[in-house]
Amino acid sequence: MPSRPTPFAGSERIAVLNLCVDYHGVVAVHEASLHLDAGTICALVGMNGAGKSTLFKALMGFVRPSAGSIAINGLPLRQARRARAVAYVPQTESVDWNFPVNVQEVVMMGRYGSMNLLRIPRPVDREAVREALERVDLWPLRHRQIGALSGGQRKRAFLARALAQGASVMLLDEPFNGVDIRTEKLMIELFEQFRREGRTLMISTHDLAHVTSFCDQVVLINKTVLAYGETSSVFTSENLALTFGGLRLEGEPAVDFDPHQAP
């Protein structure tokens, strides 16, 4: 597929400074900072309970930080949300698959923020949905009930919803869980297209092979951002030991580190 023109102007996509999020007095994320430019695919890596989901929720405005700041495309988060600049692609396990909607209707939900109160689709909305479904190779299945899709097809449907929204920032929660090889290959090809278009993707993943195969940058998190930057410089045994404890990359010496003793 030929490269599309870059539609998103500006270089800065995500700026997080000293972000803190507490749940009823329990620290979920503490003084986390990171910066991502346009046209970046960034892996978000950490153990379960390390704060990955909380960081995503904060970037979407679903939780209120107790301190710190978030800017998207140089705008305060509230303004960026009004502009529909951030899209979230959830883990599909959290979805009610018996809900009586078809694939096209699910993708149309990505256009709701651009519609009037009656949510009557305009030609521009229908065209955005059509283009999104064609890009993820689901247009022939547009009338199928969402629960009737395979696991990989469901992932692509929610990716199409984010595409239809027109967001310049996409947050993807474990997008490769439960997908077949064909879907994984298609999704990686799409992610690389999005990068060329100037979008920024942050992908939460437990598959470390994906980090080195196509991600430009990585954020390592364990209640705070331990390290972030170019994958080649950040994705080291020492940093992984801080993140997971004792993990090492092939060919590098083991680093014994108890994450509970981290400074």
From TrEMBL:
SMART domains: AAA. Residues 14-248 form the ABC transporter domain. PROSITE patterns: ABC_TRANSPORTER_1, ABC_TRANSPORTER_2. SUPFAM superfamilies: P-loop containing nucleoside triphosphate hydrolases. Keywords: ATP-binding, Nucleotide-binding, Transport. GO terms for molecular function: ATP binding; ATP hydrolysis activity. The keyword Oxidoreductase does not apply. It holds the Pfam family ABC_tran. The keyword Isomerase does not apply. InterPro entries: AAA+_ATPase, ABC_transporter-like_ATP-bd, ABC_transporter-like_CS, Metal_Ion_Import_ABC, P-loop_NTPase. Belongs to the ABC transporter superfamily. PANTHER family: IRON TRANSPORT SYSTEM ATP-BINDING PROTEIN HI_0361-RELATED, METAL TRANSPORT SYSTEM ATP-BINDING PROTEIN TM_0124-RELATED. This is ATPase component of Mn/Zn ABC-type transporter. It comes from Cyanobium gracile (strain ATCC 27147 / PCC 6307).
